[in-house]
């Protein structure tokens, strides 16, 4: 994920496993982040889905489409249960890191 330079401060975030560090804009810019960082109960918009074409196609069939809404219901060891198109779906933390979202 890349960000254009802007006049904002940056937050340093770590994944739940503590393995990766990313920097995200704090104010004045749209925050785009991996789904793994989304707060439970907060409605997010899917911006991009990474991974192999077959994985993207599979997720697309489940309702994971760019521009669609997604809400994290719960998290356990980085794995998520999400609500997408009125359906609850469990996804791994690896997959959650490939789905980029913005807060609605």
Task: Summarize the entry for a quick read.
InterPro entries: Fe-transptr_FeoA-like (IPR007167), FeoA-like (IPR053184), FeoA_core_dom (IPR038157), Transcriptional_repressor_C (IPR008988). With about 100 residues, the protein is α+β, with helices and mostly antiparallel strands.
Percent helix, as a range, is: 10-25%
By CATH reckoning, the class would read Mainly Beta
Strand coverage percent: 35-45%
**Total domains, how many?**
1
The N- and C-terminal alpha carbons lie at a distance of 19 Å
Shape: globular
Q: Count the strands?
A: 8
Rg over alpha carbons: 13 Å
State the low-pLDDT regions, or none.
1-8
Following the backbone from N to C, one meets helices and strands in this order, namely: EEEEHEEEHE
The CATH superfamily bears the name: Ferrous iron transport protein A (FeoA)
Overall average pLDDT: 82
Number of helices: 2
Let me know the largest β-sheet: 6 strands, antiparallel
CATH fold field value: SH3 type barrels
Query: Would you tell me the structural class of the helices and strands?
Result: alpha+beta
- Would you identify the CATH architecture? Roll
Strand arrangement in the largest pleated sheet = 3-8-4-5-6-7
Keywords: Iron
Domain Ferrous iron transporter FeoA-like: 33-103
GO molecular function: transition metal ion binding
Organism: Ruminiclostridium sufflavum DSM 19573
Descriptive overview:
With 104 residues, the protein is an alpha+beta fold. It has one domain: SH3 type barrels (Roll), CATH 2.30.30. It is built from 2 helices and 8 strands; from the N terminus they run E-E-E-E-H-E-E-E-H-E. Strands 3-8-4-5-6-7 form a 6-stranded antiparallel beta sheet. Strand 1 and strand 2 form a beta hairpin. The longest helix is centred in the middle third of the chain and has 10 residues, at 53-62. Residues 1-8 have low confidence and may be disordered. This is Fe2+ transport system protein FeoA. GO terms for molecular function: transition metal ion binding. Keywords: Iron. InterPro entries: Fe-transptr_FeoA-like (IPR007167), FeoA-like (IPR053184), FeoA_core_dom (IPR038157), Transcriptional_repressor_C (IPR008988).
